[in-house]
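Late entry, magnesium ion complex.
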Amino acid sequence: MKSGVFISLEGIEGAGKTTVLKSIQTELQVPDRQIIYTREPGGTPIAERIRTLLTAHENKNMLPMTELLMMYASRNEHIQTIIKPALERGDIVISDRFVDASYAYQGAGRHIPEPILETLDQWVIESCMPDLTICLTAPVELCLERVYSRGNQDRFDEESASFFVATQLGYQQRAKDDPTRIRLIDSSKNPEAVSANVMTCIHDMIKAKSKKR
Ligand SMILES: Nc1ncnc2c1ncn2[C@@H]1O[C@H](COP(=O)(O)OP(=O)(O)O)[C@@H](O)[C@H]1O
Ligand SMILES: [Mg+2]
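Prediction complete; structure with ligand written out below:
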């Protein structure tokens, strides 16, 4: 029986995930619990090598199914070697992206049918779902302006506005289907306001889970 707390952070490119994560890293302190910061794709040496393949600009012609299977290969390494052991120790795991990203990007964005993702979930995720998922949302044009001013970092940053409209709709649909776990947070506000809202959600979840221990 897991006793840790698993939190994932989601949103399209430029939504502000990395920015929020930096402020969580400076602000979040929980007595008696270790906090593990990690990311997908990646999070382990093997999964980071898969990330390099997934994000390389020269792999722009990768087939959607190849992309999906590599995401799940990376996720399998991440869950088995990092997330599950940490949750069993009672740690707090905070991941920059997790399974909802596959539904948004490879599902809604690249049109892979959901039953395929659900089948992979049965094999790879099992019951290892986040307790809380924070999904940052802001108008797509604003997110793309931010990516433009930050500079493209990888293959996904080069996708079209219409791809990100579909991807964001995918996230919003996931949130509608699972409103207790997934919290949509408006990230068009200033970084301090966004972080404050995210911190409130995280503190509430940690408090709720700690009562159950
Ligand atoms: N709330 C915000 N207001 C204004 N600019 C932001 C905000 N959040 C992030 N940014 C800027 O937008 C760019 C993309 O943010 P980032 O955190 O890298 O997004 P993501 O990790 O979701 O792709 C960065 O240059 C960052 O400084
Ligand atoms: Mg980021």
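Residues 64-89 form the longest helix (26 residues). Will revisit in the morning.
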